[in-house]
Design goal:
The chain is of the alpha+beta class. It is built from three helices and six strands; from the N terminus they run H-H-H-E-E-E-E-E-E.
């Protein structure tokens, strides 16, 4: 290298200063611990948000279930109010003694029929049980055992109270007397 090709001492200092400035301007190497801490905080924040959202979903579901139950009960009760009104009229007529027993009996029969209609429309059906049917603990409740004539031991001798089901759900088993 000749003198003309060689940089002057001032230029050497400038080149060194430029290199130092480039090093200072370059981003520092990432700290792995700081990166892990940031990632941890990010995941924790996401977890807390997901947990809060799950709590909100649970609360909303409970509220919606309670509202659905209220509306379902209200729907049935609204229909039963008509039956209640008819019973109150029948009781008032019986107390006033202005109607004969046959009229009251007929009125109560009509009310009974209307009540069965309302419950049947909601899916309530009686559990068919007759004398001689085999006892089934899934749909029957034995209230007593007696010696029975004309039926096998363990069979239904008498139905003490009708049972009801709603679809496959037994709401009340038939209460029966079972033959010994």
């Amino acid at each position: 290298m000749t003198e003309h090709e060689r940089p002057a001492p001032d230029e050497d200092r400038e080149i060194a200063a430029d290199a130092a400035a480039d090093e200072a301007a370059a981003p520092p190497a990432p700290d792995p611990l700081a990166e892990l801490a940031r990632e941890r905080d990010d995941y924790k924040d996401k977890w807390l948000r997901a947990h809060a959202e799950l709590d909100n979903v649970r609360k909303r579901a409970r509220r919606e279930i309670a509202e659905a139950q209220t509306f379902a009960v209200a729907d049935v009760l609204r229909d039963l109010l008509d039956v209640l009104d008819n019973f109150e009229r029948a009781a008032g007529a019986a107390a006033a003694a202005t109607v004969d027993a046959e009229a009251i009996r007929s009125g109560v029969g009509l009310i009974h029929g209307r009540l069965r209609e309302i419950l049947g429309a909601r899916g309530l059906v009686p559990i068919p049980t007759a004398k001689g049917d085999p006892f089934d603990p899934g749909i029957h409740e034995a209230v007593m055992q007696m010696e029975g004539e004309g039926v096998e031991p363990g069979a239904v001798l008498e139905v003490a109270q009708t049972g009801y089901r709603l679809g496959d759900l037994v709401l009340r088993p038939s209460r029966v007397v079972v033959a010994r």
